[in-house]
Design brief:
This protein is α+β, with helices and mostly antiparallel strands. It is built from 9 helices and 9 strands.
C-alpha cells in the first residue's frame, strides 16, 4: 500500500496559516507549492530546495506572478481552463519564460474563484497525485474564506462609497477622506473614471476574466469598481506620473483588444474621462 492510499485525509490539520498549509501540501505531494489569490498575488509558498525554476523565484521575489508568465499562460490556454473548472490542470514547461512543468488547481467558493494552488513537478503526475491537488483545493478554500470574510464588509462598502462619488451625493472632502481611509482606498494623486460597455449584461463568469485582466495591467492601478447592467465602471490611477493621460488611453485600447480577442466579446466599447487631483 503506497502513501496515497494510507493517507485518507492528508490535510487534516488544523493549520494556523496558509504558509503552514503550503508546506503540508508540498510535503505530501513532494513538490514546491505556491498559493495565490485570484489576481496571482502570492499568499503563501512552501519551502523548497535549490532545484526551482526562474519563474518560481521571480514570483516569490515580486510577490506576484510576472506579467510575461501570465501572458504565456493565457496564450497557452491554461488560465481559461482554470477559470472554467475546479479540476487540476497539467501545464507543460514554457521555457521561454522560465516556467517548468506545473500542476495547478483553482480554488472556488460556489461560482467565485478565490485563488489557485500551483505545484512545480518534474515527473509524470499520477491520478492519485491529482486527487491530492483536489483535496488540497478544498482545504485551501476554507483557509482563504476566513480571509475573504474579513474583507467582505469592506468590499461592499467600497461599492456604496463609489456610487456616492459617481452620483454626486458625497461632496464633502473631509467625509470622502474619512471613508477612503476606512476602506483603505488611496484617493491621492491623479484619478479618473473608465467605463467599458458590453453588448449584454455582465455575467459573473465574464466579470472574473475581466477583473483578472485589469489587475494584471501595467498601465493603471485599480482603486475600486462597480457594474451597472452592461457597463463596467472603474476608478483608476495611472502607474506612472509621466504621460498619465496616455497610459489611461493605452489601457482602454488594450483592454478592448484583449477582451474582444480572448473572450470573443463583440462590440465592446471603452471610454475614459478627464484625470482629476481631487475626488
Amino acid at each position: 500500500m503506497d502513501k496515497f492510499s494510507e493517507q485518507l485525509d492528508p490535510f487534516k490539520g488544523p493549520f494556523q496559516s496558509l504558509e503552514e498549509l503550503a508546506d503540508a501540501i508540498s510535503e505530501t505531494i513532494g513538490c514546491p507549492i505556491t498559493i495565490e489569490d485570484a489576481n496571482h498575488r502570492i499568499l503563501a509558498y512552501s519551502t523548497h530546495d535549490d532545484d526551482v525554476d526562474p519563474a518560481r523565484m521571480a514570483t516569490i521575489m515580486r510577490r506576484k506572478v510576472p506579467d510575461n508568465v501570465i501572458k504565456s499562460l493565457w496564450k497557452n490556454g491554461v488560465i481559461p481552463k482554470l477559470f472554467d473548472s475546479d479540476e487540476p490542470v497539467i501545464i507543460p514547461a514554457i521555457s521561454e519564460v522560465g516556467l517548468g512543468k506545473r500542476v495547478a488547481v483553482s480554488v472556488w467558493k460556489n461560482d467565485e474563484i478565490l485563488g489557485f494552488i500551483w505545484g512545480q513537478v518534474t515527473w509524470d503526475i499520477t491520478e492519485e497525485e491529482l486527487n491530492l491537488f483536489r483535496k488540497a483545493g478544498k482545504v485551501v478554500k476554507n483557509q482563504m474564506l476566513s480571509l475573504k470574510i474579513r474583507k467582505k464588509a469592506g468590499e461592499e462598502g467600497h461599492k456604496d462609497f463609489f456610487w456616492q462619488l459617481l452620483t454626486g451625493h458625497l461632496k464633502d472632502r473631509g467625509k470622502i477622506d474619512s471613508l477612503a481611509d476606512k476602506y483603505h482606498l488611496s484617493m491621492n494623486g491623479a484619478t479618473g473614471i473608465v467605463v467599458f460597455e458590453f453588448p449584454e449584461e455582465i455575467q459573473q463568469s465574464l466579470e472574473r476574466h475581466v477583473n483578472y485582466y485589469i489587475q494584471a495591467s501595467s498601465y493603471i492601478k485599480l482603486i475600486t469598481s462597480t457594474t451597472d447592467e452592461n457597463q463596467l465602471i472603474l476608478l483608476v490611477r495611472p502607474f506612472q506620473d509621466e504621460g498619465p493621460s496616455r497610459q489611461i488611453k493605452d489601457f482602454v485600447r488594450d483592454f478592448v483588444e484583449e477582451i474582444s480577442s480572448r473572450l470573443g466579446v463583440q462590440e465592446l466599447k471603452g471610454a475614459a474621462g478627464t484625470l482629476y487631483r481631487s475626488p
